[in-house]
Design goal:
Layout lengths: L2 E2 L4 E8 L5 E2 L4 H4 L4 H14 L3 E2 L13 H15 L9 E6 L9 H9 L5 E6 L4 H14 L5 E8 L2 H4 L1 H5 L7 H5 L7 E8 L12 E12 L8 E2 L16 H6 L6 E2 L4 H17 L8 E6 L7 H10 L9 E2 L2 H4 L6 H12 L7 E8 L4 E11 L24 H5 L14 H19 L2 H7 L5 H27 L6 H14 L2 H11 L14 H14 L7 H26 L8 H27 L5 H23 L6
Parallel strand pairs: 5-6, 5-7, 12-13, 12-14
Antiparallel strand pairs: 1-9, 2-8, 2-9, 3-4, 7-8, 9-15, 10-11, 14-15
Helix pairs in contact: 3-4, 10-11, 15-23, 17-18, 17-19, 17-20, 18-22, 20-23, 21-22, 21-23
């Protein structure tokens, strides 16, 4: 039975095709015929499939120009641009593809990383042509259930990397017909849709209407038929690529060749039309009410096959209502229906009451997928997004992911001493937001992308050293501003300031060891973010009973104990520097845990001494402001790269 939706709208759709279109003649520059048999196969297949041009994300030498994640990210940017969407409003990202750029992690996570997107829920669907529909269905369910105000579904394919001459040349050009066939059928591209509850009017030709997703239906028949299209199995489907002694042997035996058994394909359309007839019989669809039919087929050869089967079922949709961009966009697998839908909405006007019916057969081991959308008139301005679906500030990240383990909140609220649970929960929410924003600053992004250079490290330290130098000063000023009731706390802060008062000298020596040319520490200057943070902390320290400084210490010590250790391995891997160029970072990674344990004791002392009940709120407020200012310091390390 289809999954029905009552409040899910397609707010925008976009796509991305890499490079310039490649004509049938120009294909030889990318995936040239390798022998006489290959040339004959090319001529036959191109005569049947109706494709006149396609797009490749590789260059004629076979080098990758765009990764699959980059294709997907560009499609998402196009989708958001078309309707002034903001990635920050999206809390769910789903992806569909036959394969990303890596075997793991999941493709959606790699796309999120490519976008440097904020924390959100993700789901990666691994499949073939219907995987894009699966991504849409999951995103729609998240919106329908109220868990997400807006969700993105994206599908991207990059099969050209499998077809380049070098892969086939390695086997002596002896690939069988099943392996040659798809080289002339598939191409690269990505499409994305933005779903939401608000029902923004569609941009472009159909402005003034909104498009509601009525239902999605998918059904797999993998238990009824053998494998038709596959990658990773031997030619006889009896052996997987990981079962070989090595990948070299799997490659040599053809287990890493993408194959299609075209003898099975007629069965695919037969089951697809039978499922379509069932949808009509059960009242989910009326062919007479379908105004636009978007049918994904790999070859124009199958158009009369589909028409004939529909006619026999008495459920014909007239050809003038069909839309396909196969001829000029090519067959992009899971991305095809999203690209088709985006281009249809870009070039055709949809009127209120019109229905768009999508049919997507998948030949992997036979699936059939369907979607029905209906246009509605929009009265007045865009309907507001449901506030109830706005994600919480803390977010819900996977606590067992590698990044989360390294940069989780400095103190787990679930392990809080008695009476501190609420405070640590609020601080953890601030930490999650701060850490996420730091992780996406230009300096950290460059480091994570392995583009960090020694000059970047030196610049960072030149900004950072004078800020570290001030740490013990504002702590001592704050301790001196505590009145009699907080004297036990003042003694603890004084002790901590004493331990850290010479840390800046270690960092300065690291700077000199790494090649820093400024030999007088007094000549170093904080960047604007560091200046703002320093001024704020000194000013606060001079006030009466500045208990809020404990919130500042939470962020600053937490950065040293959580974020710095996660960045240190990346620094060492990126920079050819001696080990003693990282002494300060090593020291804080090992010792700030003890400092944070002392911080917890300080908080307990502060709350015990608190007479007006305002200490917790002051700690939380100061932590939030300190996080914002420390983030500003990170941004100004590479101000020219900030976006």
């Amino acid at each position: 039975m289809p999954i029905a939706f009552n409040r899910v709208y397609l707010e925008s759709a976009g796509y991305f095709m890499p490079g310039e279109p490649v004509s049938n003649e120009a294909m030889d520059s990318y995936i040239a015929p390798l022998n006489r048999m290959s040339s004959r196969i090319k001529t036959r297949i191109l005569a049947e499939n109706g494709i006149k041009q396609r797009y490749y994300a590789i260059d004629p030498e076979g080098a990758t120009v765009f990764t699959n994640a980059q294709l997907a990210a560009n499609a998402i940017r196009d989708c958001l641009r078309r309707n002034d969407g903001d990635l920050a409003d999206v809390s769910l990202l789903t992806s569909g593809s036959s394969g990303g750029d890596a075997l793991m992690p999941g493709f959606a996570n790699m796309i999120q990383g490519e976008l440097a997107a904020h924390p959100m829920e993700t789901l990666s669907v691994h499949g073939i042509c219907a995987a894009g529909v699966s991504a849409i269905q999951t995103a729609a369910q998240g919106v329908e259930m109220g868990g997400h105000a807006r969700a993105l579904a994206v599908a991207a394919e990059l099969p050209s990397r499998l077809f380049k001459r070098s892969r086939f040349a390695a086997r002596g050009y002896d690939a069988d017909f099943d392996a040659h066939f798809l080289r002339w059928m598939l191409s690269d591209g990505a499409g994305a849709v933005l779903l939401g509850q608000g029902g923004r009017p569609l941009p472009g030709a159909s402005s003034g209407v909104r498009l509601r997703l009525k239902w999605v239906h998918q059904r797999s028949f993998s238990g009824d038929y053998p494998v038709c299209m596959q990658l990773g199995l031997s030619a006889d489907r009896q052996k997987g690529h990981l079962d070989y002694p090595s990948w070299n042997e799997a490659e040599a035996d053809g287990a890493l060749s993408l194959r299609q058994d075209i003898r099975l394909l007629p069965h695919l359309f037969d089951i697809g039309i039978h499922e379509y007839a069932k949808l009509v019989r059960d009242g989910w669809l009326d062919p007479d009410q379908v105004d636009h039919f978007l049918c994904h087929y790999s070859s124009e050869k199958f158009i009369p096959v589909v028409e004939d089967l529909m006619e026999k079922a008495g459920l014909v949709i007239p050809r003038e209502r069909w839309f396909s961009n196969l001829a000029w966009r090519g067959n992009t697998g899971a991305a095809s229906i999203l690209i088709m839908l985006a281009e249809f909405l870009e070039t055709r006007e949809v009127k209120p009451g019109e229905q768009i019916f999508c049919y997507i057969p998948e030949s992997g081991r036979f699936m059939a997928a369907y979607m029905l959308l209906e246009a509605e008139a929009v009265q007045g301005a865009t309907v507001a997004v449901s506030a109830g679906a706005t994600p919480t500030a803390k977010g819900h990240e996977d606590a067992h992911s590698a990044d989360a383990d390294a940069i989780a909140p400095p103190h787990d609220p679930d392990m809080a001493p008695q009476g501190l649970g609420q405070l640590l929960t609020e601080l953890a929410a601030i930490w999650h937001d701060y850490r996420s924003r730091v992780w996406r600053t230009p300096v950290v992004r460059r480091l994570r992308n392995r583009q960090f250079q020694t000059a970047d490290y030196l610049n960072w330290m030149e900004n950072w050293i004078p800020q570290v130098r001030e740490g013990s000063k504002w702590m001592r000023e704050g301790a001196a501003s505590l009145t009699e009731q907080y004297q036990p706390l003042a003694a603890l802060i004084d002790m901590h300031a004493g331990e850290e008062q010479n840390d800046f000298q270690i960092l300065f020596q690291d700077y000199r060891t790494a090649g820093g040319t400024i030999d007088n520490i007094d000549l170093l200057r904080r960047n604007p973010g560091g200046e703002a943070l320093n001024a704020y902390l000194h000013s606060l320290a001079a006030t009466r009973d500045p208990i809020g400084l404990l919130g500042a210490i939470y962020i600053i010590e937490g950065t040293g104990q959580r974020i710095v250790p996660a960045l240190l391995p990346l620094l060492k891997a990126s920079l050819k520097l001696p080990p003693d160029a990282f002494r300060f970072l090593e020291y804080h990674g090992h010792n700030d845990e003890n400092h944070l344990a002392r911080w917890l004791t300080a908080v307990e002392l502060a709350l015990d001494c608190d007479e007006d009940g305002r200490a917790e709120r002051r700690i939380v407020d100061t932590a939030r402001r300190t996080a914002a200012l420390y983030l500003m310091q990170f941004h100004h390390v590479m101000e020219d790269d900030a976006t």
